[in-house]
């Protein structure tokens, strides 16, 4: 694995990352790897602790996303979403984009200290920073490593705007920190929830919290005055795009107090495309013709299909009393700034979903 020289020393031990009842078939914990190199393609689930060199990453301008800076305390994600676009990033570490992405989690143990150092650099201009746009900062390993409280506290202390996108219920642990940060700077929190369908969740997002638990996160953030928008994503062709499914999801999100809903249809990049196709071939071969038709020209289905799904979601929002004529929450336009000390190279992600 690349980054072997940045690994920290540690004894081989089981980490207390047990799943709550009701979750899917994810692993109950991670182990620390032994002293040798981490090999790709093994069944072992490990937390690979590294000392990162930089932590605030600049997103290339050509990526077309509404943010320019990101923080990713983890690489890989135990949510194990079959469709995750970030899977390909694991190949940059000489690990595979399939099971290794789900089970070999790189942990940047010095993330909090690095954030403080880079925010304090004279060249940092205080631009908004997005988190959760590559892998989830509130995945299960966060319960053990507690990197996000240090990161949020550092952003709060510098009054630096930031956004967080997550499927994880662990964000509620940091509710008071989020409230404190929101008093001094713009803070945007969003939950990713594409469907309420339990079978789809268990099959396609086996390590992520159940849809009902994510709805509760939306509700509790709203009640706490932080507010929470929802990325209704990804909407999966043939699995969660039926009009009645979209209606049910929108109704539940509005009832939970979502401040806005952004519907996004599944797109399949290299890395995710192969992994998702393998799952379809095994579990839903009946849908292969549909996907071959929709994705034969690239990562995105035809615009006519996407527009139809979005319009059905917007119509459902209006039926349930949610305005659709205002911009979605989050940082849509980001001013430029100089790179932080030692950073500013390639970004870890290229798109939100």
TrEMBL record:
The keyword Iron-sulfur applies. This is Rv2578c family radical SAM protein. InterPro entries: Elp3/MiaA/NifB-like_rSAM, MJ0683-like, rSAM, rSAM_sf. PANTHER family: SLR0285 PROTEIN. Residues 15-24, 322-331 have a biased composition (Basic and acidic residues). Residues 63-323 form the Radical SAM core domain. PROSITE patterns: RADICAL_SAM. SMART domains: Elp3 (SM00729). Pfam families: Radical_SAM. Residues 1-40, 317-347 are annotated as: Disordered. Keywords: Iron, Iron-sulfur, Metal-binding. The keyword Iron-sulfur applies. Gene3D superfamilies: 3.80.30.30.
